[in-house]
Amino acid sequence: MSDKIVIVGGVGGGSTVTSQIRRMDGDAEIILFDKGNYIGFSNCGMPYYIGGVVEKRDKLLVSTEKFIDKFGADVRTSSEVVAINRKDKKITYEDSSGKHEESYDKLIYSPGASAVIPDVKGINKEHTFTLRTISDMDEIQHYIDEYQPKTCAIVGAGFIGMEMVENLSRIGIDCTIVDRSKQVMKLVDGDIASVIHEHLEKKGVNILLEDGVASFSNNGSTLNLNSGKSIQADMTIMATGVKPNTVITTAAGLETGETGALKVNEFMQTNDPDIYALGDVVETEDFLTRNPRHVALAWPAHRQAYIIANHLQGGKVAYNGTLGSAIFKVFDLDVAATGLNRAALQNLGIPFKEASHDALSHAGYYPGADKIRIKVLFDDTDGTIYGTQCVGESGVDKRVAVISTAMKASMTVADLAQLELAYAPPYSSPKDPVNILGYKAAGMLTK
């Protein structure tokens, strides 16, 4: 007899694990709870809906009815799981009719993470927003439609900050970015960040670094900064990070790790073997160092869903760590990175060298060639690749994808020079920038 599987949370993690389980087990009873109104939606597409690039809201949503028809799951939206009773193997959930219980044989926990909202004096929530859910997106869109703001302060220069500044600027809103760091986008090193910074300024974005919001005044329309400066803004986007949703798992005695996310083993099991977890709520190992790491990205969640479904069927496919491969767009620039950056390596006390190369995205004589900058960080003894970063207007994604693949295959910087990559003038050069970077780095290895 198949297990009764209860899944907490939809979107990328819960919806994907549902589909993976059903493909492997046609008889399992699957009940999926989500506190929102939608079983799944594209988090990554929300800034582009606000900016008008994605014209139809429905394009971001997964139809609950079609999902149920396809995967045969009992889907309960607008139902929030509020407690886990491990002893009796039951969860408690709340919906419009009150509190209820549901038993389980196996529980899969995938509630994601929540946007961090700093406790700042004077904040006015009527025109201060985060962007994490569809309801967040709808609130921002409604405010823009209703009040037609002309200025926006974006607090935080990470993924959401970068994507929102582009899309708000697209619809005519002047933006100011405020961040406590010395650079925009801590994902990359300073030399790559400086390219982003310069590009933002060319696009008319005001950037205030090494500063933060001390308080709000004037009904929340004035941001008073730690430096003593003030910003006037019709609306504010708080893009200061996320925190894993671990409140009910902590209350149930499930272990959290060093990063504050839920601790799991290589099969995505918590310290209770009948409870699995995945996605933005979990802490996994870094692929290279095996240190704990919390990475809130889509690819790990999808891979982890397969790991869980396989393990439920008696398989032993293990999750082998996270590189953190990521890419984002900011105006005309593409920026991508994978592995560890300079700051992470220094914090871990890992000696490294770095090589960089300024190139063109394809053959210079073929129209449309764009400048790109690519760099690699590596061990100067054995050539182990620790990380790579690339910025430019085209051809960025494939270069980082190639090196990410090389890292998963435990290839060295010297191996990059040997990669036989497809060439034609519209796409590359006879020696791809990845090859040339490999030659440069290999020449820096200790003999």
UniProtKB/TrEMBL annotation:
* All copies of domain FAD/NAD(P)-binding, residue ranges: 4-298
Repressor listed as a keyword: no
Q: Does the keyword Cytoplasm apply?
A: no
Q: Which InterPro entries match?
A: FAD-bd_OxRdtase, FAD/NAD-bd_sf, FAD/NAD-binding_dom, FAD/NAD-linked_Rdtase_dimer_sf, Pyr_nucl-diS_OxRdtase_dimer
**All copies of domain Pyridine nucleotide-disulphide oxidoreductase dimerisation, residue ranges:** 327-428
Q: What are the names of the required cofactors? A: FAD
Q: What keywords tag this UniProt record?
A: FAD, Flavoprotein, Oxidoreductase, Redox-active center
**UniProt similarity note:** Belongs to the class-III pyridine nucleotide-disulfide oxidoreductase family.
Q: What is this protein called?
A: CoA-disulfide reductase
Write down the species.
Answer: Virgibacillus siamensis
